[in-house]
Amino acid sequence: MIAFIQTHDLVGNRIKGDRLSNDTRTDLVCALACIYLLSPQIPMLFMGEEWGASTPFPFFSDYRSEREIADMRQRRRQQLEKIKPTPSEQELAQEPDPQNAATYNSAKLDWEELQEPDHAAWLAFYRQLVAMRRECIIPLLRGLRRACGQARVISGGVFEVQWSLAGGAYLQLAANLSPRDMSGFTPMEGDALWAEGTSPGAESLGAYSVRWHLRSARACATQ
Q: What's phi and psi for 131, nearest 5 deg?
């Protein structure tokens, strides 16, 4: 299974092609990144996500005939009208013209952003997560069985998951993606692997917080 939080479809099918990091709380994006980059599933990053790229990825096209262009505009309008909550006429009018070369050019990454402190910090954060995955999780994925995970939903956006991995190891996730502190989590066993946000106690997590534990005989660096 592939895990992701952004794709060219999910971003490009928004009216302006704005990225998740452009209109979502930073702590929530961090929590989501921690979940999918450390889960057993194969993670898929969208271009520039790893440094919090600010460039949009709007829907663009290069049709040649007037009929094709008209058909595209009609389909695109119908697609945008299905967004929930339904966008207003004013919002729909703000969509960049897919046939305009400037719309295509705006989707290109600005690699110079990597020199800016905020973007460099995002990249360092992603690199730490990928290194943790490589060091502690990937070695335990060989021979992974189907249905090796068990999940428990505590409330909307609040859940915990445990995976049975190779060598009798257990990977445990507790996540609170809600805007308030939550309790009711099962105390974790083993070594703390990663913690993002706040963790007031063994059975609680602060808003937009994630906690990972790994029970394994294999030594591993912890965050």
A: -65, -40
> 122 with 116: CB under 8 angstroms?
no
- Give the structural domain span for 193: 145-215
Query: Are 57 and 180 in contact, with CB atoms under 8 Å apart?
Result: no
Query: pLDDT tens digits, residue range 86-140?
Result: 899 999 999 999 999 999 999 999 999 999 999 999 999 999 999 999 999 999 9
Number of domains in the chain: 2
Residue 10 tokens read as 């999910």
CB 200 within 8 A of CB 181: yes
Q: Is residue 188 part of a domain?
A: yes
Category of 134 on φ-ψ map: left (φ > 0), alpha (ψ -120 to 50) or beta: alpha
Taking each helix axis as running N to C, give the angle between helix 26-38 and helix 117-132, from 0 to 180 degrees, rounded to the nearest 10. 30
**Can you give the pTM of this predicted structure?**
0.91
Structure confidence by residue, pLDDT tens digits, 26-48: 999 999 999 999 999 999 999 99
Pinpoint the alpha helices (H) of 153-194.
none
Which domain CATH number covers 160? 2.60.40.1180
Contact between 189 and 170 under an 8 Å Cβ cutoff? The reply is yes
Looking at residue 145, its pLDDT comes to 78
